[in-house]
Amino acid sequence: MRRHDVVVVGAGLAGQRAALAAAQAGRDVAIVSKLHPLRSHSGAAQGGINAAVGAEDSVDTHIYDTVKGSDYLGDQDAIEFFCREAGSIVVEMEHFGTIFSRGADGSLARRAFGGAGFPRTIYAADRTGLALLQAIYEHLGTETITVYEEWDLVQLIVRDGRAQGIVAFDRKHGTFEEIAARAIVIATGPAGRVYSRTTNAHSCTGDGLAIAYRAGAWLKDMEFVQFHPTALLESGILITEGARGEGGILKNVNGDRFMTKYAPHVMDLASRDVVSRAITTEIAEGRGFPGEYVHLELMHLGKEKIESRLQEICDFSRNFAGVDPVNEPIPVRPGQHYMMGGISTNIRGETSIAGLYSAGEAACVSIHGANRLGGNSLLETLVFGKQAGIAAAEYALTAALPSITADDLSAAERPVRAMQAKKDGVEPLALRSEIQSVMDRWVGIYRNPADLGKAWDALADLRRRSSELRIIDQTSSYSVNLGEALETQHILDLAEVIVAGAIARTESRGAHARVDFPKRDDANWMKHTIAAFRPEGPQLSYAPVAYTRWDPKERVY
Amino acid sequence: MVETVHATFQVYRFTPGVDSSPRYVSYEFDLPPHTPVLSALLKIRQEIDPTLAMRYSCRSSICGSCAMVINSKSRLACQTQIGPELARHGRIVIDPMRNQPVARDLIVDQKPFWHDYERIDPHLIADPAHPMPEGQPNPMTPEQVDRFYETPRCIACGACYSACPAKEADPEFPGPMALAKLYRFVVDPRDGATRERLLKIQPGGLWTCLRCHLCTAACPKDVRPSERIRDLKELAIAAQGVTEAGSRHAVAFKENIYERGLLNEGKLARQTLGLAGTAAQLPQAMRILRKKPELLKSPPKIEGLAEVRKIYEMLEDEERSG
Amino acid sequence: MKFAYYPGCVAQESGKELDMATRWVSRKLGIELVEFPKFSCCGSGFIDEANLTLNVALNARNLALAEAAGLDLLTVCSTCTGMLTLANVKLKDPKMRAKIDPVLQQIGTSYRGTTKVRHLLHVLTEEFPPAQLKALVTRPLTGLKVGAFYGCHLLRPAEEYPTEEPEDPRQFEDLITALGATPVYYRGRVMCCGFPILFVKEGTANHIAGRQIQDAKAHGADAMATPCPLCHISLDAYQNKAEHEVHQALDMPVFHLPQLVGLALGARPEELGLSRHLVSVDGALAKIGTVTVPA
User: Fold this and answer.
1) Interface of C with B in 107-166 (CB under 8 A)
2) How far apart are alpha carbons B222 and B153 in whole angstroms?
3) Mean pLDDT of C160-168
4) Average of pLDDT values for A359-363?
5) Which has the least CB within 10 A, C10, C33, C84, C124?
6) Dihedral, CA atoms, A135, A136, A138, A143, nearest 10 degrees?
7) What is the pLDDT of residue B322?
8) pLDDT-based confidence at B320, cuts 50/70/90?
9) Sheet harboring A110-111: ordered strands across?
């Protein structure tokens, strides 16, 4: 049987950083990933990574901005740790070979980002995630690590109160395989594909989150879902805030610059949640274009400025929407972008299960609270990926040999083979589309009890139908169909948790906007939602928010 | 009402070990002309045949998963719109990438591609003489940054590798992506093994590049691998002179032109091949000379040769006797 | 129509037949070719490997010579076209400008950047509408299936040739159609001929050439035609070795572009130097009802 000290599931920035830390600690480390590490969605991050390294900036300001940005749901002790680690983690990445943008004096260049008191976002053009991903992958190549590439996580084996290993599906050979591990790190990224209108990759289906949840790990704050105001119509590809930063404006079907109404001072450059809500209101009140979108206009900026400063946006619009922003408006609407919630961890990446760790967007420490600031997500992957790797390595050093039995493998394989044996049934991609349209329609930016109730009922119906999921593809090698069946089950579980948390939370905080409870309610709701798996559905409980120095105030920009 | 076009797709289907030979399956839809090929393939998977095997993830040309051959061009499916392809070809033929064995349908086994990438030692190698500044980023001048700032655009999709005729003809050749990546390390001021890297890559590596620029035409991210390979060649010659048939040829050619301003073909062959090589070429040379006897004569010197020589003298380091 | 004629090295030496055919076709079509005995070699993709700046400077001088005469360049070689165009592109970069301008000054010249580099193929297809060319055809190449072989540097890097699709061009095929012949579309037509490594890795180079000829043959070509004398060396002069590498008798006649045009416009084979080829073109000529006169 395959056996490793530390098995890291997921090979984005968090997973690779965890693997690196564990390998440097001398453990035998393996990575399991359904994508080649360089194809991970971390590579799609554009803007940058925050670190208060400038002379005029301070770590305290970064902490404060993050606390305030979180709408006071972030744990302040974790945020303090997070911001203090930022400088060294960025320097480390530079030493690993990251090709950052530089100032004229050769220092790391920094740019301004929303919600930040100083320009503290270090970047590599508009491909910061890609530059970091390459550097960590290159550096990881200097360590001896086993990579199980194009393997899907199928099951987490938890016995005697601790994680013992995993069962995975080898896409290439079409076989189920078990790997025993003294410690396991889940770094499988987000579940943005719970929605169809998302900036996330197709592969962001929350595999590790859902599997850890079913294995008994707690999920935290899953109802907090960040929507980016400007996702390209149809494809949902991100159109960066920079487009409005350069002077782009939003208009409705009547040609009105509607942001003057919602944010008279900063208008189109208001914070993400404000702009997303404004667009949603315009569309809901009938002032969107047929097909439910608004226009982002850049034409007045002139060809030269558009093509030089917003080159990627030009490429995206032309390639993916058939629209040339030099001559026509870009059709946009809000799209799911980030999940503040995830597997509940502390700053060491420890979860509610011994031997199980998590980091990155799959995890929730929580530092983002109810709303994440731009530039903090890349930082999170590296800071807490490293911590989870260190902690997992420490645990593995003293942990007893894990035990996995042949039954574990067959128990994981049997239901999948049963789906393959069905003559008739529901197609995974069809069911997935239905889950996504439920979430798109009823669990979006504005939430009301009636819609959430409809979503809950619809998901219950889809849950029943999910027992009829079938896998048509019988070929052993590269059954993409089989992977999609697994993923569909994952997003169904996670959709339920999001809806349950959103129904229960009767306040508006950060990204969670309840129409019937438009105000933040610190007296009753300054607490984390914890979801535990029960066969009948998620069981919710609540945990306190950690305070250090910052009292809640009204969030005004 | 969105305008649509009628689109016919002919998609390569093959499962090695199961199917006796590859086949093309046709699918037809009416779709808006700006529809990405990837969306059309996903539509096939969702509505017609979920067994079509392919890789895809980000759908925004950043993960490099969906490289394939579309109407004979190595491309990302997500970045290729159907409209222009249909306008030019009337249909869209989709094949798996070349130069890598087919695993199933549009999925190729990328092991050879990653193996070639690993061959160039793709990580910074510390320079003991210049340790990294503790707790501080390495300083760099804008000129240093300029040389490799664009190199991280590479998404390792493999389109260049698929398009490369040198890779097709010579398995030893590491292919464009690995060499473009090597350039990234060679010019990195933080790297301590620049010279060793150039030494290591020259035999069987660098000089097999045909500079046909098919890689640059295929690259979805404008990395321009063929130009980075050219840069590597110049750096290799500067670092260690002529050690290979390839560098000997480039330098011999340059010297040849200094003499007359135009190429002396016969002499160039002798310069590059050396005595033994020239002797081995005699039968072929005799064949050609029978038809083209002027190869034996030296061409005349161009008018204004002094100007050409002046240019050499200004832009070359070495002393010349003329 | 008047151009500064840039024959390149090979057309003045082993590829003399290309020069002969070019002059014949130009006379016939009223294209005036102005001689510039001061032109130097384009660098052929080799000098730039040793010293890019030097190569750009040499071609800046060539381009400046034409500019001073108020003429655009007419080339008959894909590689010359590519290298001279590369110089034009590089000279748009201020950093390269700063290195080149002082050099030009030293030899008493300067270059503003106005000289266009035009290959004969582009001149024929852009300046002579197909109908006009068709009207001049006295010996239609009816029944002859011709596989165009472009030569890399006529097509790529792409942004230097905005009118052509770098992996899917049509100009040459359109011209072949206008001459009465039938173009053959095959993947190899935009591929490499192997020439750049002919003296470096001969076996690989021959193999690559062999693959393209095989491909043309498999698609039914009776003959190939190329706008590049370097491709011609690979495809014609080394075809025997290519046959050996791909283990197939190929027997593929390869025309230079202006030879094919000349034939259609009524030139006698000896006026086009057709007997200088290593692979006999007799079979192809027989197809269009012409015979060669032994050299």
Assistant:
1) 107-109, 152-153, 155-158, 165-166
2) 8
3) 70
4) 98
5) C33
6) 150
7) 43
8) low
9) A49-50, A121-122, A110-111
Cα dihedral A2/A186/A26/A396 (nearest 10): -80
- Contact list in C for residue B169 (CB cut-off 8 A) is 194, 204, 207-208, 211
> Helix %, strand %, coil % for chain C, to 5?
55, 10, 40
What distance in Å separates the CA atoms of residue C274 and residue C295, rounded to the nearest whole number? 9
- Model confidence at C182, pLDDT cuts 50, 70, 90, reads very high
Of C38, C54, C166, the CB nearest to B316: C54
Distance from CA of B279 to the nearest CA of A (A): 47
B1 pLDDT higher than 60: no
Q: Domains, chain B, ranges and CATH? A: 5-108 (3.10.20.30), 111-240 (1.10.1060.10), 245-320 (no CATH)
Contact B292 C16 (CB under 8 A): yes
| Interface residue B122 vs chain A (CB under 8 A) | yes
Report yes or no: A401 at the B interface, CB cutoff 8 Å: no
Using DSSP's 3-state secondary structure scheme, residue A548 falls into coil
Terminal alpha carbon distance of chain C: 33
Kindly state the tokens that stand for C180: 């009465």
- Phi, psi dihedral angles at A446 (to 5 degrees): -95, 135
Residues C1-11 pLDDT 10s: 999 999 999 99
Q: Do B and A touch, counting CB pairs below 8 Å (3 needed)? A: yes
**Mean pLDDT calculated for residue range A177-183:** 97
Q: How far apart are CA C185 and CA C168, in angstroms?
A: 10
> Looking at beta carbons, which residues of chain C come within 8 Å of B307?
38, 61, 107-109
Measured between beta carbons, the chain B residues lying within 8 angstroms of A427 are: 46, 50
Give the neighbor-by-neighbor strand order of the sheet with A330-339.
A225-232, A330-339, A294-297, A249-251
Q: Are A46 and A214 in contact (CB under 8 A)?
A: no
Residue A162 Cα to chain centre, angstroms: 26
Task: Write out C182-243 in H/E/C secondary structure.
Answer: EECCCHHHHCCCCHHHCCCCHHHHHHHHHHHHHHHHHCCCCEEEECCHHHHHHHHHCHHHHH
Amino acid identity of residue B265, one-letter, is E
CB contact under 8 A, B45 and A480: yes
Cis-peptide into A366, omega within 30 deg = yes
Q: Is A182 helix (H, G, I), strand (E, B) or coil?
A: strand
- Type and span of the H or E element at A349: none
Q: What is the biggest distance separating any 2 CA atoms in chain B, rounded to whole angstroms? A: 75
Integer angstrom CA distances of residue A271 from A372, B161, C26: 11, 43, 67
Provide the residue type at B227 as one letter: E
Would you call B292 an interface residue with chain C, using a CB distance cutoff of 8 Å?
yes
Q: State the chains in contact with A (3 or more Cβ–Cβ pairs under 8 Å).
A: B
Comparing CA positions, the residue from A290, A280, A236 lying closest to residue A259 is A280
For residue C153 the two structure tokens come to 């540097």
Interface test with A, best of B4, B41, B57, B197 (most A CBs within 10 A): B57
**C-beta of residue B59 within 8 angstroms of C-beta of residue B73:** no
pTM tops 0.90, yes or no: yes
User: What pairing do the DSSP bridges indicate for beta strands A330-339 and A225-232?
Assistant: antiparallel
CB A454 within 8 A of CB B77: no
DSSP string for B153-191 = G-----HHHHH-HHHHH-TTS--HHHHHHHHHHHT-TT-
Ordered DSSP codes for A367-409: SSTTSPPTTHHHHHHHHHHHHHHHHHHHHHHHSPPP---HHHH
Question: pLDDT at position A300, please?
Answer: 96
B257 and C40 within 8 Å at the Cβ level: the answer is: yes
Taking the C-alpha atoms of residue B154 and residue B63, their distance in angstroms, rounded to an integer, is 10
Of C40, C49, C52, Cβ closest to residue B308: C40
